[in-house]
Design brief:
Length: about 230
């Protein structure tokens, strides 16, 4: 719907009470209970010059916004960002996903024409489909009585604020919250162990095999497995 509105308006914010056809990365289904969670999209047209390498800024803005909202509503809970844009909460059973960001870019040739930042936060939902392969949680499961509408209002404020923050500042905050540079990881498609060297300005992660010293660039966060902290 945000995509349709961008045909008439240069900047839109859309939210929903229910999501039955939502999708995550790689087209995964994302279904939520009516009125229980936050589902929203921030869309904007690119009318000026946009450096393609800096499109990762929109993903980082969405993830940082969600992270700050969760910390505001649940200051006693520990949250962290998992590369590149998932937010996890520490539960008695370990780390569990509580929020995620999905980015959609459109191009005319090589020129970006618009970007849509989709953010989902689990607020009041207490049961999740068994088909979900990873641990998930919500603010309610963490013991907080929070209204999804209140979370949405604060999230919109953060998204609008971060929209005008320059990419170098966003990149610095994003790297700090990811807290993965200098840590060891493994990759789902590789038996080796890697040391994360840096995160490029286009969002890609550069890791070095600790045995061969060969560097590899990673674009798919789903392949990353942390070694020196719980998943």
């Amino acid at each position: 719907y945000a995509r349709e509105l961008l045909e008439k308006f240069p900047y839109v914010f859309v939210s929903a009470l229910h999501q039955t056809a939502g999708r995550g990365r790689k087209g995964r289904a994302w279904v939520g209970e009516f009125g229980s969670n936050v589902y929203c999209s921030l869309g904007m047209l690119h009318r000026g010059v946009v450096v393609v390498e800096e499109l990762a800024a929109y993903m980082a803005r969405g993830a940082l916004s969600a992270l700050h909202v969760l910390r505001q509503f649940a200051p006693t809970i520990e949250f962290r960002m998992k590369y590149p844009n998932d937010i996890q909460a520490l539960t008695p059973h370990g780390w569990a996903k509580i929020a995620g960001v999905l980015i959609e870019h459109a191009f005319h040739g090589e020129k970006p024409t618009h970007t849509i930042v989709g953010v989902g936060i689990n607020v009041e939902q207490t049961t999740f489909p068994e088909t979900i392969s990873q641990s998930v949680t919500s603010l309610k499961l963490l013991g907080l009585q929070v209204n999804a509408k209140d979370v949405l209002t604060v999230l919109q404020h953060h998204l609008v604020q971060y929209r005008v923050v320059d990419w170098p500042s966003i990149h610095e905050q994003w790297i700090r919250e990811l807290n993965i540079v200098g840590k060891t990881i493994t990759l789902a498609d590789d038996p080796g162990t890697y040391l994360v060297k840096r995160i490029l300005h286009d969002g890609r992660l550069v890791a070095q095999n600790i045995v061969s010293q060969m560097e590899r660039t990673v674009t798919d966060g789903d392949t990353v497995r942390y070694q020196d902290r719980d998943q």
